[in-house]
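Quick one - first record:
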Amino acid sequence: MSRSALVTGGNRGIGRRIAGELAAAGDQVAVTYRSGEPPEGLLGVTCDITDTAQVDAAFKRVEEEQGPVEVLVANAGITKDNLLAMMTEDEFSSVLDTNLTGAFRVAKRAARGMIRRRSGRIVLISSVVGLMGSGGQTNYAASKAGLVGFARSLARELGSRGITVNVVAPGFIETDMTAALSEERQAEIKRNVPLGRFGSADEIAKTVRFLTGEDAAYITGAVIPVDGGLGMGH
């Protein structure tokens, strides 16, 4: 059966590929975005997930167009890298407000309908950085690590209602961000990855598709690393 799915930050990069993968599986997929254009054929809803009113309005639009959200992928995120000694409070708090509190806002809104239906799938997109740390990214690492505790607590709250909550933690993935790195920096990163390469957005998307499907019905509170072995042991 076609489900109503929502992917935040789904108009580019990993989020766009996740949205496409869910659509290919037969789901009706909506994406939130702040700028640019949504993927062709998918419902696009402008939304700043740091604004609770915008989140509520986005969900109402999705509910009107394709029904209550049955699959939520909280993917939207930002970075504002800096060394701690030079990091401003805004650089720290704005990253947490988007990456962590933003996930709280959308998960809370989605959970209402899921609880009533006694079913649902929630996947939060974290990062290997949240598991092993990264210099110059204390804000980003804190936000992504926070998603793990949030997801596991939520999994305990919602499990009795047939709702699963899981985390995918990507490593270095082929995106515009990694493409902008120098060849020397890319080579240095790959030397630290046991599989010796960057991952693809498709590999993240297929993992999310699995976690939202029937084959993963008995998986909840899990953190699935898709990082080529970079963060193993964390």
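second record:
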Amino acid sequence: MKVLLAVDGSDHSYDAVRAVECLTPAHPLRVMYALNLPRLAYPTLGPNLDKELSVTVEEAMKEEAESVVNRAASLLPPHHGTTEKRIVEGKPAEAILAAADDMKADLIVMGARGVGQLQEHVIGSVSHRVMSHASCPVLVIKSPIRHLQRMLVPIADEEDGQGVVDFLSKNPFRERPEVTVVHVVPFSEPIWPVGAMIPEGFRKDMMSYGKEITNQVVEKLGPLGYTARGLAVLGSPASAITQEAGASECDLIVMRSHARTGVSRFLLGSVSHGVVHHIGCSVLILR
């Protein structure tokens, strides 16, 4: 498995480094820092001083980048596999996406910066941009993962379930956590404001469908060595997933992305974006 570990010196990025302990050895594991150099221009300083200031700032930022990458590499567990260290110039999200494509990464691991809700929806955080546009799975670390013991897997349909099974069949984790597979039937506000008018028989049919597809995943995970259970619940998807994550005290949520594109993402948001923003634990987004 080829893993790209993006670090920036924040506490969350070092949590991401430590989370590598839960993954199977990577070949290679590339530790990268995206160096977004400023273009300083102060006409009142004159061309010589302006250039001197730019060089000074650039050298200081490169030294900081090397320090962060070296520290991150030193914190990696002994079993992590082959390590490569890279410092790449460019805007963080774009540099991470390009690096992942260049190495044909199987997984991107990075910390969440915790950008505020309004700013996040207006311009997007680095982690959300990467999560939205990466061609491979993205593991966003929001809180430290010391031991991966419990995992929540929300699925919307059979395709989701098979996608999760396909990913877990690649043995991405060193140890197999207990898995709860959940399907949310959206018969509640604000998803379906007329939810109360839905016939009880149809509601039961949808719940039966939810239990059926979650049980299908459970049956497929058994031979892979996972202890799993399935359940179906009523509610607004993002809220219900967040609530179930708290109830099960999961260490990680693994789900496929159903992100909208363009303006609709910012106006309405996707379930995966809603979960990543509101949940306290780490999230692994699959493609």
